[in-house]
Amino acid sequence: MTNYDEDVLRRLHETELEILDAIRAICDEEGLNWFLIGGSVLGAKRHAGFIPWDDDIDMGMLRDDYERFLEVAPSKLPPEFELLSPRHTPGYAAMFAKVQKKGTRFRNRETVDAGVDMGIFVDILPRDRVADDPKLRKRQYRKARFYTRASYLYHSEHISRVPPGLKGKIARMSFPLVHGVLKRVVNEDSLRESFWKKTRLAADEPATDCASFTSPSMPPLPIKMFAEPEMVSFEGRSLPAPNPAELYLETAYGPTWTQVPPPEKRKSHLPVVLDFGDGVNVAKA
User: Fold this and answer.
1) Is-contact 85 97, C-beta < 8 A?
2) Contact at 8 Å (CB) between 209 and 222?
3) Taking the model in full, what pTM does it have?
4) What are all long-range contacts of 202-210, with beta carbons under 8 Å and residues at least 24 apart?
5) Does residue 244 contact residue 230 with C-beta atoms inside 8 Å?
6) Contact residues for 269 (Cβ-Cβ < 8 A; gap 6+)
7) Measured between alpha carbons, how far is 171 from 75 in angstroms, rounded to an integer?
8) How far apart are CA 189 and CA 175, in angstroms?
9) What's the average pLDDT block by block, 10 residues per block, for the chain (285 residues)?
10) Gap between the Cα atoms of 92 and 115, Å rounded
11) SS3 at position 160
């Protein structure tokens, strides 16, 4: 599904806001610090809400708050919502958590292959300390990229986001082979354990920056940018975001982040199954 019907996308956004509000209520009760990240910050600053074609909400937490959320969420989430995470969910490829709405379905090729019954969700990505030492920092990023890619390829031979052109074509041709090898030589628990061991920084190692190693595409940013977030407007809500949000967006998207990209450069999660809980797959409709 590359283009959404307007009513479908509006309904998807409303469902995701329900999930966000449930997460926010737990964070308020527990005193947990959280913030919008990625396209949700971009949407807040450029559109005061969702990017018009976007189909998810991204939020982040510093590691300690994230770990506390994983502890309390299973018992504190309302019954219509469910926590998914590497430690809670067999067959789950991502190294970060999601909260999904039960009874719904939002599945792309990867989740279909992995056999995970994914519903409509909100992503929650932890941010970890990044070493001040350049060599250690480089190693953290290298290991993060390796193990996150390995996890996705272990769970599925179909990876939707690859480089364009010849590189992407070669990558797609190699995925089934890599997937088959990984299924024979490792398991998902060993991949997760290796990821944590290779990316976590020793407590006594100096660090002024942090990064989302579970999605290691952005350079590190100061911890204080996330420890003291600024408030932004998002779909009529005042929500926390990196501080200053403009610097975060320049780092993530470049100096032209205020410009709306042409249609051919707009991206979504490309679900092959989207069901709001009534048994109708609107992705096919």
Assistant:
1) yes
2) yes
3) 0.90
4) 205/129, 205/131, 205/132, 205/133, 205/136, 206/131, 206/132, 206/133, 207/129, 207/130, 207/131, 207/132, 208/132, 209/129, 209/130, 209/132, 210/62, 210/127, 210/128, 210/129, 210/130
5) yes
6) 55, 56, 106, 108, 160
7) 41
8) 21
9) 82 98 98 97 97 95 98 98 91 93 89 74 97 97 94 78 62 75 89 94 96 90 96 98 97 94 84 93 81
10) 9
11) coil
Beta strands 105-107; 209-211: pairing state: unpaired
Give the side-chain half-sphere CA count within 13 A for 281.
Answer: 9
Instruction: Assess contact for 103 and 119: CB atoms under 8 A.
Output: yes
The reply to whether omega before 52 is within 30° of 0 (cis) is no
Closest Cα to residue 218, out of 118, 145, 120? 145
Q: What is the dihedral of CA 173, 178, 181, 183, to 10 degrees?
A: -110
**Distance between CA atoms of residues 242 and 159, nearest Å:** 29
Tokens 């031979």 — which residue?
157
Distances (CA, A) of 224 to 31, 36, 208, 242: 17, 15, 8, 9
Residue 240 structure tokens: 């926390």
Instruction: Tell me which residue of 283, 249, 279 sits closest to 51, measured CA to CA.
Output: 249
The token pair that represents 26 in the structure block: 């737990």
Q: Is 175 left (phi over 0), alpha (psi -120 to 50) or beta?
A: alpha
